[in-house]
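Batch 3, record 17
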Amino acid sequence: MAQVTVYTTQTCGYCKATKQYLGEHNIPYTEIDVGVDRDKAREMIEKSGQMGVPVIIITKEEKEETIIGFDQARLAGALGIA
Amino acid sequence: MDNKEYDITIVGYGPAGITAAIYAARKRLSVALIGELPGGEVRNSGDIENWPGDGATDGNTLADKLIAHLKTHLDAVTIFQEKVTKVEKAKNGFTTTTESGKTLASKTIIYTAGRHPRLLNVPGEVEFKNRGVSYCATCDAPLFPDKDVVVIGGGNTGAEAVIMFQKIARKIYLLHNTDKLAADPILVDNFKDDPKVTIIYNTKTTKIKGKGMVASLTYENSNGKEETIPVEGVFVTIGAIPNTAPVKELIPLNPLGAIPADRYGITSIPGFFTAGDVTDIRDAQIVVAAGHGCSAALSAGDYISRLQ
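Prediction for the assembled complex:
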């Protein structure tokens, strides 16, 4: 099963939409609030090469896929949501 | 193709579309509501203090409340959280196509797709998008703790961005293109005497530079001379452009790219109604969009009753 990490800020609407979408499809995820955790903010910038939220990292069979922004088509593809 | 023919397809999941759906549901009309971001751009608007009845609220809270209200009408309203790519005239009504390839048939359309932020169109802007350049302070401001940032555009959105940064950033520049801020004075009062905030008037942004991430912004001052400020964040709030790509072959737009409509949401095309920020309405306000959405739904209901 894929492991899903969502980097967010509290005020970001697209983060909320992403979480709602994952919730509606019963996909468990770990949320990291980069507005609070500066080390994790640096980690997100290193992994994604950019500073926009949300960043969604999907780890499947030791392969990491990084999705920047609420990109529903890519999320659906990566997580096998019909 | 979904076999069902809806009475109304509402394009847009913001205050105009949600209000239209609620009014249509109460008229017992069948509704498909399609939009990408539940709640629409409201989600990105930060603090909201001019929505009657709520005093002070914020975009996410208001969007959640609108959606909760909408969801009391799921007997009449089917929601598709998707991007619409095209709206076309069909034999007896309209066909709406989504990014995933769904097509929906309906007697009428209420088009409430809102607006998206306008670009500066200067060198470095695209290169550094999300590498320091942002169009959503509400989303990204928390990533700039103790950093120097610039907000471009002194309207209400820009003023709200400055207010948000007062608690986060080290130094905030606010650049405006004329000699007077357009923002409401009640907003400007929050930062006009703050030593962290520098307001610079009569500026024209010329370039954004950096290495990997943004490092500086250059603007032309009122004497036509270039000045460069060292900043790690550039927040662009210079207005918005109507989201009309799916309907650009269907309906003529005004010179600003908005859909011409009257106060009842009626357009030049029978059966095609519109509301909110995508239209040529004067005031891009949440409460206005909601009201316009109501009128558009009542207009669509009236149109449908005449079809029978």
